Amino acid sequence: MSVIIGFLDGEPQELTLVEGRVHINGEIQPIKNVSVEEVEEFARTLDNAPEGDEESREIWRHTRRIQFLVSLLSRAFGDECSNYLEMLIGNMHYRVLEYLGETDSLDEFVETRRVPRRHDHCCDHDHDHCDHDHHD
In degrees, to the nearest 5, what angle opens at C-alpha 91 toward C-alphas 85 and 93? Predict the structure, then answer.
């Protein structure tokens, strides 16, 4: 089962389930608990875009892709996979805002809406104000 989950630099990004494992563009990804039924339902949703011109139908599909990507992000492990999904979400979000006429340049959009990442443990920080256990 395969489905297009977004676009980066105009290139489709394809999610495929292989023996219960998520692959994106042929590479296995650390995303847990994704079922064939869930991917099939998502594909049906994309196929059943409401009536309208093709551009508005594609924007509607992007909004559904964003929902699906957020769902995947909540089950993803590791910075590389999470960053990739966040980049896809940001790209789809930008396309929707662009359609609505609410954008500046893509570079400015990305910079102003960058989500602050949690600190990593290679740097000293105030342990009294962080929300996780330390074993250092």
Answer: 100
